[in-house]
């Protein structure tokens, strides 16, 4: 249990710093609300349309594909740390992992999840 004490101290310091920053900003921050300050901020452009309008499914597909491949790549770190202990078995596991990763990438690519332009004819 004594191994967890530094971790608990770090978590406590992080939560304390975050809560303290929020509370201090409430007490010390300026309070001059205006209509312009209360308006939603859209990259410097005035808001156009309704927030509930339909978006293209491509946005969500690209986000899911990014998360999928990002999380899969995160699994490479533990493998790299234990590479010498795993030997050839670990090597072939990584080759299999990369083949599955590349196969999934090619599948998504062929399905057109990365095509943002107009449809191209002659595929």
What does this protein look like?
It contains five helices and no strands. The protein has 123 residues and is mainly α. It is flat. The mean pLDDT is 82.
Topology:
Layout: H1 5-28, H2 35-38, H3 57-74, H4 76-81, H5 83-111
Concise overview:
The chain is an all-alpha fold. The protein has 5 helices and no strands.
Q: Which homologous superfamily in CATH is the superfamily of the largest domain?
A: NADH:ubiquinone/plastoquinone oxidoreductase, chain 3
CATH architecture of the largest domain: Up-down Bundle
What name is given to the CATH topology of the largest domain?
Methane Monooxygenase Hydroxylase, Chain G, domain 1
The total tally of domains equals 2
Q: In one word, what is the shape?
A: flat
On the 0-100 scale, what is the average pLDDT? 82
By CATH reckoning, the class of the largest domain would read Mainly Alpha
Overall number of strands: 0
Give the helix/strand class: mainly alpha
The percentage of residues in β strands lies in under 5%
Count of runs of 4 or more consecutive helical residues: 5
Residue stretches low in confidence (pLDDT < 50, at least 5 long) are: none
Rounded to an integer, what's the Rg over CA atoms?
A: 24 Å
